[in-house]
Amino acid sequence: MRQFVVFVGLATLFVVAVGSRFRASDGDRIAAVSRLVSAKLQASLPPALNVAGPLDTLRRELPTRPEDAVRARLAADRRLAGANVTVVGEGTTVRLRGVLPDAKAKRVALSLAENTAGVEQVIDELAVPAE
Description:
Number of domains: 2
Strand content: 15-25%
Order of helices and strands: HHHHEEHE
CATH class of the largest domain: Alpha Beta
Largest sheet: 3 strands, mixed
Number of strands: 3
Structural class: alpha+beta
Shape: elongated
Radius of gyration: 26 Å
Distance between the termini: 58 Å
């Protein structure tokens, strides 16, 4: 909440500065105010949290193994909603197993796997029911 208040304060200062037609000589004052606001913003953050904290958390959540990246891509694709595809990784080789509703869904799954960073080979063990 404090961060939001600081942001609103900065926005208000900007509007006031633009509305009052500040001159170039006012730059020193604006720099001083921005340093003060920056210090207040850093003080409002919890001591254990730094700016890189959220980025580190995000990096830990990103898939690092090729099979995890393929699983994430298959799960995120709307064209494969409800499809049950098992992904098994062996180094840079990924094996896809499961039953898909049609040939188009199979092509989509294979394309996503083949075009995933870190995947060099895709072994297709996907089945499509006969129509």
